[in-house]
């Protein structure tokens, strides 16, 4: 137990603390940020069809208007681009300025831009879409900062026995965010449908989209700012994490005071030990040094590659839910509904999937991550995602037949379940554990940004790839693609590759953060 004795008392106290109220407060404070992230990123897919009807329906068309390819890709993708930039920038800033300060900034940015994206200005399609994309970019920028900071704060607050479950629980709030966005859309659409009766598109194209439905998408997008705004006060009251204060800011006294208050115990401030650590040469290497490459190069490759590959599959699946549902008839053909009913049907399908597979998957991870470990969950998740993807893709025609629709939905739900009880959760947890404190938030940001790059590939790539091979059957404005079946086969191969890359990620179950990141507290490597 030599490591323990040389470790700082304040870090030991955190590592060995019993699970108590402040752990749950931290989960809720950090989790609410994540709840908002998921709400904002995924609620857009509920309203894109409505935006198409409102702003791009031409009087002589036989079917409702849809967003042109470039606009559709921008509206869904611009927030992801913002997120990628935010992850890199705020991840770096979190190691420079401290987790807590930066955490407040990201929250304010998220709340302001979430409200602003619903206030998109002008009446012309171009004006509305431009302002919507502008605010969604900055909304994404704020959301990006939340990734590295939430994970780092939670990992630095947690004890070592249940740390995995705590970080995964913060991430699992994403599931509730997706669920909540569906429920808000359902309630809003049901209310408007009741208040403003309108015929279906087939019966009367002009009257099928009531002018009031312009409020629906605005309400849905703006609602996301509420939970984040509510936690602002608590987020500001949370003390800076002890690992940042002691190991990065080198302020032993404050670290001991802060954690003494949180844990309600006396902790001595060991200034001499911190002096010794700061003089220790083995702990001075920066991100762009050979020493970093030697110690953590493979780890960073592992966390980036697995997250990148996972998000290609995960986001293309999530953003294209409604296309998959329409293909199997869960959502009726567009002309048979009015605008408000369409929002309702899309939200209903997304909420059902979230309830039955997305949310349970996250909590399975929370329950098992500290029992079977990160590595096993990630490997198993990628394996089953590969299996179910191929099982859907190869006999794809079979699943599109009326009789087999329920089977298809079950298979589709299972790929989601194993993404969340698998790499979607573990890729978030591990980068917050395996890098040294002074680079932790930066490296988590880099890994997360690699993931978002995958999401962008998934979102944009799949939009084009999934188009029919027959040029006459593609959506308006798109070139012919490789078809849904081949796109799914490609995603299956990507999952299999993710399984291979998992082998470069170390297991951190039951280790303290200093052991997991090989930080030498004692002066001996």
TrEMBL record:
<feature type="transmembrane region" description="Helical">
    <location>
        <begin position="102"/>
        <end position="121"/>
    </location>
</feature>
<dbReference type="GO" id="GO:0005886">
    <property type="term" value="C:plasma membrane"/>
</dbReference>
<feature type="transmembrane region" description="Helical">
    <location>
        <begin position="375"/>
        <end position="394"/>
    </location>
</feature>
<dbReference type="InterPro" id="IPR004738">
    <property type="entry name" value="Phos_permease"/>
</dbReference>
<keyword id="KW-0812">Transmembrane</keyword>
<keyword id="KW-1133">Transmembrane helix</keyword>
<comment type="similarity">
    <text>Belongs to the major facilitator superfamily. Phosphate:H(+) symporter (TC 2.A.1.9) family.</text>
</comment>
<keyword id="KW-0813">Transport</keyword>
<feature type="domain" description="Major facilitator superfamily (MFS) profile">
    <location>
        <begin position="26"/>
        <end position="510"/>
    </location>
</feature>
<dbReference type="InterPro" id="IPR005828">
    <property type="entry name" value="MFS_sugar_transport-like"/>
</dbReference>
<keyword id="KW-0592">Phosphate transport</keyword>
<dbReference type="InterPro" id="IPR036259">
    <property type="entry name" value="MFS_trans_sf"/>
</dbReference>
<feature type="transmembrane region" description="Helical">
    <location>
        <begin position="165"/>
        <end position="192"/>
    </location>
</feature>
<dbReference type="InterPro" id="IPR020846">
    <property type="entry name" value="MFS_dom"/>
</dbReference>
<keyword id="KW-1003">Cell membrane</keyword>
<feature type="transmembrane region" description="Helical">
    <location>
        <begin position="67"/>
        <end position="90"/>
    </location>
</feature>
<feature type="transmembrane region" description="Helical">
    <location>
        <begin position="21"/>
        <end position="47"/>
    </location>
</feature>
<keyword id="KW-0472">Membrane</keyword>
<protein>
    <recommendedName>
        <fullName>Major facilitator superfamily (MFS) profile domain-containing protein</fullName>
    </recommendedName>
</protein>
<dbReference type="GO" id="GO:0005315">
    <property type="term" value="F:phosphate transmembrane transporter activity"/>
</dbReference>
<feature type="transmembrane region" description="Helical">
    <location>
        <begin position="445"/>
        <end position="466"/>
    </location>
</feature>
<keyword id="KW-0769">Symport</keyword>
<dbReference type="GO" id="GO:0006817">
    <property type="term" value="P:phosphate ion transport"/>
</dbReference>
<feature type="transmembrane region" description="Helical">
    <location>
        <begin position="215"/>
        <end position="234"/>
    </location>
</feature>
<feature type="transmembrane region" description="Helical">
    <location>
        <begin position="351"/>
        <end position="369"/>
    </location>
</feature>
<dbReference type="GO" id="GO:0015293">
    <property type="term" value="F:symporter activity"/>
</dbReference>
<dbReference type="Pfam" id="PF00083">
    <property type="entry name" value="Sugar_tr"/>
</dbReference>
<feature type="transmembrane region" description="Helical">
    <location>
        <begin position="406"/>
        <end position="425"/>
    </location>
</feature>
